[in-house]
Amino acid sequence: MPTQRPSSTLTRGAQLPEVELVPRVPQEADIVVVGLAGSTEAPLLVGAPAPVEKAAPAPLREIAQDLGARPASGHTALLPRFGQQLLVVGLGGEELTPEQARRSCGSALRAATEHAGERSLHVAISLETAEAELVRGALEGALLGSYGFTPLGSEPKRPVARISLVTSLSGAPAQQALADARAIAGAVLVAREWVNTPANILYPESFSQDVRELVKGTKLDVQVLDEKQLAKEGFGGILAVGGGSQRPPRLVRVDHHPRGAKNHLVLVGKGITFDTGGLNLKPAEGMYTMKCDMGGAAAVLAATVAIAELGLDVHVTTYAPMAENMPSGSSYRPSDVLTMYGGTTVENVNSDAEGRLVMADALARSQADKADLVVDVATLTGACMVALGNRIAGLMASDDQTADMVLDAAETAGEEFWQLPVPEHIRSSLESKVADLKSSGSRLGGAMAAAAFLQHFVADDTAWAHLDIAGPAFNDEAARDYTSTGGTGHAVRTLVELARGLQD
Class assignment of domain 9-188? Predict the structure, then answer.
């Protein structure tokens, strides 16, 4: 019997601290974050409150340096209390960028939580930020840096209850920066919480129920197809992958359709709630983190909610095919021929290449939406990790103009992607003697072959981009800047910025 879900994703750990913009440092703040900029030889202390400067027995910059503070991005040092407790964070140079603000504030909030104890802290951030982009970046980093997954069976902790950002920005730009940061950071935390939830608790049925709960009270339209409906409509890929599990698959469709929106964006996210490899069983060490194999679905669903919350004037239709890839007597086999949604037949080469099969069904279904742009997101291939490592995602696209659009959105969002090609010889490696195409080609160029397979299910005249987030979707190393251990929510911010750019 599956472990009983302790509480919903939304109430367990994805709630944000209170956040506000203020003109001066609140006296009641438990910790005040100030910055150290410039060079190591001549650093500049930024944002220190005048009363604290006056109460200190020596210049605060000198005290900070004596305690090891450095201007290197994200480096932190806690100063003695001179009226208020200061936490000095390195800003990485003289010119602060939005991404440096995110990373520095994320590092500062992580450091602050280490000193919280049993308290819930009020943290003030004083970095002399005045531009809207910097305010938003600082808030996003702070909110993301305050997150930590609460162990199951424990009461959710809020080490940071309130964040006050000191800024001279006011009026509509300030309110927009605050709204953006809250919506986007909130979506990232929902995605992280989903990815971090064990697979005996988050599986296709419960995942789809979570989506319904997440959108309750919004204008988003949600449809969930169960295994009977999937069979009736011919979703052969999703049914094959999910056929080996006692937990049947689902296909979730969420639609954000503001009146008058002219551009239509389709998002598709891989939702494999656990991946054993099926009959092509993974080695034990490669299976342990496979609860993260639904990171693509988490990203597209969470991003869609943020897009709706921000009221972006673009039609967004999101698909999340959900399945658990398990070995059993009912599992699909290598050499099986599957009939996908729409009739394309596929020779299955490797049952551990399951993600592309569920994605292909969803992409084929999405063609009826006649979108202006289709973007799929998946923790798809180890090959992409070999090529780009754990922190950079792969991007493959129908054309360079589409790739540039995604890369521009990613740069604004502060997420890293690198474009890879989909050459013709890779496409030809998917030719099959028993079906329309094979699911896999050669071991070499595996990330590109997976992209070529997916592109087969998108119309030639449709702009399309594939985001392989296998590396950065899950961080099994120590937390850094605003990136927590475990699920990262990678691609959420890029997708929101992409939708913003598609507004009329």
Answer: alpha beta
Ranges in the chain annotated CATH 3.40.630.10:
198-469
Sign of CA dihedral 141, 142, 148, 150: negative
- Give pLDDT tens digits for 20-69: 999 999 999 999 999 999 888 889 999 999 999 999 999 999 999 999 99
Which distant-in-sequence residues (6+ apart) come within 8 Å of 242 by Cβ? 204, 227, 248, 249, 322, 323, 324, 325, 358
Whether pLDDT at 1 is above 70: no
Is 270 a catalytic site residue?
Answer: no
Task: Select which of 5, 282, 391, 500 is catalytic.
Answer: 282
Entry pTM: 0.96
Which CB contacts under 8 angstroms, 24+ apart, belong to 246-249? 246/326, 247/203, 247/204, 247/205, 247/273, 247/324, 248/204, 248/205, 249/204, 249/321, 249/322, 249/323, 249/324, 249/358
Catalytic residue among 250, 356, 427, 493: 356
Give the CATH number of domain 198-469; options: 3.40.630.10, 3.40.50.150, 3.40.50.10260, 1.10.720.60.
Answer: 3.40.630.10
Distance CA 176, CA 226 (A): 39
Active site residue 356: yes
Which helix (H) or strand (E) is 419 found in, with range? Answer: strand 417-419
What mean pLDDT value characterizes the chain? 94
pLDDT at 163: 98
Residue 6: pLDDT band by 50, 70, 90 thresholds?
Answer: very low
